[in-house]
Structure formats: structure tokens, C-alpha cells
Design brief:
mainly alpha, single chain, Dna Ligase, domain 1, 6 strands
């Protein structure tokens, strides 16, 4: 009888032990599946953490933008992995299939995904600072102050007028939280890579320094609406420079008066006192009137050989130009253009 009772007790113990084991296994499976439940995303989501963002804001961003699988488990894991005390600035890619431990390790280590920084069609320093700040953590006003600082320009081998020529429009891989100093150092390295021996040799053949090429290219790009005219316009201005003639380039007048939208240059515009007014001053202006594109720089380095000295917008207002070798021919072209403006009511 005692043996039967003992067997029953053993059976009960085994059942309880088995049940508890199943409970622990189920709990373990649930916990494991929750901890390692992947992010479900249709496309990569980027989390941006600046110097003002706290751990709590990071969690909120993960919930709202990346669909955090479990806030409770994430917080437990983050505490165990000491992430709340190790929040780092940066741009982080959260990809479909990543687990919460994967994300915490990435955020904690500061393993960023670079930004493809691009800037083109930039006229003035305010535009450049604004465009860059839209893509990086950098504050636009702080960057503008750096660009306008003569001492800063001198440090990189430029002056306050030519500093903007250090920026070659292209696409660059940079970290979102890069500092202004690091960005400027990077742009100087890219500038030196761009101005290799081959380009410097081409600049020397047309009698210009790299900075002067950028200055002339900026005028060429502002003057010509269509890129196929760049080499012609560059050749024309070089002809005038080589003959000691003033450039008399309308875009420099627009820059001097601060109005690129001018359709008609009047006598009062030509009289503005500015080192950029090439109707009053000989040679090139002190620096670029925009950030010239690589295409404009290349066209200026390989100008078309011709005898043109004058240019005027066509009277069909297409944005193309008539080119002339004599002042008389140019005067006829200019008169036709003025009549077209009058007919359009542009004064």
C-alpha cells in the first residue's frame, strides 16, 4: 500500500515538474520571440539623434517612426545594455528584420549610415549654408558665420571673396553629425583632389589660377542658360580679358545690386559702385558670383576658340545668345533685343 502511494506521489511530482517545465519553456519562447521579434518595415527608416535629443526622445522616435516591437522589452534591454547613458548623435538606419538588440548595439556604438551630401545651383553663401544645414546636423547660421569669417577663409588659403570657390558641387558621403570644422576640412581635401595637375595645367594655358577659373566659370554659368553655350561664352570673356577690355557682364551687375531676377539692365544699374561691377572695373571681379558647377568649370578650362567679343540675348527670348565680333553687329543685336523687351512690356 505504501509503495502504491509512493508511486502516486512520484507521478504527481513528475506531472507538476513537467507542467512547470512547460510553463518555463513557453515563457522562455515567448520572451525570446519578443526580444528577438524583428522590426517589420517596408523600407529603411532613419533615426536622427542630435545633441539635444534625450534617451526618452529616442524611444519615442523608434515607436513613432520605426514601429518598435515592444517598448517594455526595449527599455529592459536598453537598461541591461547601458544604452540610456550612452546616447550618441548621428543618423542611424533601422532596417527590416533587425531585432531590438541589433538596434541598441548600433545606437550604442554610434554606427551611423552616411548622408549623401549634395549641393548645386548655389548663388550666395546664405544659399550654401541653408542647403547644407537641410542635410546635416549643422546649424545654418553657424555655418554662414564660418563662411563669412576672413580668418577662417585665410586658414584654408582663400579670402572672404573667394572662399566659396572651395566648394565643388558634387555628391559627398559624410556623417550627418559632422562638425563645421570637419566639413570645411573635407571640402578643402575635395577641392585639392578636383584641382589636380591636369586641370591646373589647363588653367595655366588660359592664363588663370584655379580660383580665377571658378570666378570666370561663375559668370559663364550665370550668363548662359544652355550648357552648350558655356565654351563659347568662356572664349568670349577670355578674348576680352586678353585684349584688356572690361568684361561688361550683366550677371556681375545683378550680383552687385543684389537682384538676380533683373530682366533689363538699366543705366542706373551700371553705375552701382561695387568691385563686382565689371562695367566699371577691369579684369575679373574679386570672387565668384555663384558656386560654379563642374560643367561650367570644365567648359571654362576648354573654351571655344573664336573671335567673338560681344554677346546679346536673342530677340526670341529663348535664353540663347547672338555673338558678334564687331560693336556695330552687337548694336544691331542689342537693338533687336530691346525691341523684344519693349513688346513684352519688360522695362
Amino acid at each position: 500500500m505504501e509503495q502504491i502511494k509512493k508511486k502516486k506521489r512520484n507521478k504527481t511530482v513528475l506531472l507538476i515538474t513537467g507542467s512547470l517545465l512547460l510553463v518555463f519553456i513557453a515563457a522562455g519562447i515567448y520572451l525570446y520571440s519578443t526580444v528577438f521579434q524583428p522590426f517589420s518595415l517596408t523600407e529603411t527608416t532613419y533615426i536622427h539623434i542630435d545633441q539635444e535629443k534625450s534617451y526618452e526622445e529616442v524611444v519615442r522616435q523608434l515607436k513613432e517612426e520605426a514601429g518598435l516591437p515592444s517598448e517594455k522589452i526595449f527599455r529592459l534591454l536598453a537598461e541591461r545594455m547601458n544604452y540610456p547613458n550612452m546616447v550618441k548623435t548621428g543618423r542611424y538606419a533601422i532596417e527590416d528584420g533587425m531585432t531590438m538588440p541589433d538596434v541598441i548595439r548600433k545606437l550604442r556604438s554610434g554606427t551611423q549610415t552616411p548622408v549623401n551630401l549634395t549641393f548645386n545651383n548655389i548663388r550666395i553663401r546664405e544659399n550654401l549654408a541653408g542647403r547644407i544645414s537641410q542635410q546635416l546636423m549643422i546649424d545654418s547660421l553657424s555655418l554662414l558665420n564660418a563662411l563669412e569669417d576672413p580668418a577662417n577663409a585665410e586658414k584654408f588659403g582663400f579670402d572672404e571673396y573667394t572662399f566659396i570657390s572651395m566648394f565643388i558641387p558634387n555628391t559627398y558621403e559624410v556623417y550627418w553629425d559632422t562638425s563645421i570644422d570637419n566639413l570645411l576640412n573635407r571640402m578643402k581635401r575635395e577641392y585639392e583632389l578636383f584641382w589636380n595637375e591636369e586641370r591646373k595645367e589647363k588653367a595655366g594655358k588660359i592664363g588663370l589660377t584655379p580660383v580665377q577659373v571658378s570666378t570666370l566659370a561663375s559668370i559663364v554659368e550665370e550668363e548662359a542658360t544652355y550648357a552648350d553655350e558655356y565654351p563659347i561664352v568662356a572664349g568670349l570673356y577670355l578674348n576680352r580679358l586678353n585684349r584688356g577690355m572690361r568684361l561688361e557682364a550683366d550677371p556681375t551687375v545683378k550680383f552687385a545690386v543684389g537682384d538676380f531676377a533683373l530682366r533689363r539692365i538699366l543705366f542706373r544699374h551700371l553705375e552701382v559702385e561695387s568691385p563686382y561691377n565689371t562695367y566699371k572695373n577691369g579684369g575679373l571681379p574679386p570672387g565668384p558670383i555663384r558656386v560654379p558647377s563642374i560643367q561650367a568649370i570644365e567648359a571654362t578650362l576648354l573654351p571655344q576658340q573664336h573671335r567673338y567679343l560681344f554677346m546679346c540675348a536673342k530677340d526670341d527670348l529663348s535664353g540663347r545668345h547672338n555673338f558678334a565680333t564687331t560693336h556695330a553687329e552687337h548694336a544691331r543685336n542689342a537693338a533687336a533685343y530691346q525691341r523684344a523687351l519693349n513688346a513684352m512690356g519688360i522695362y
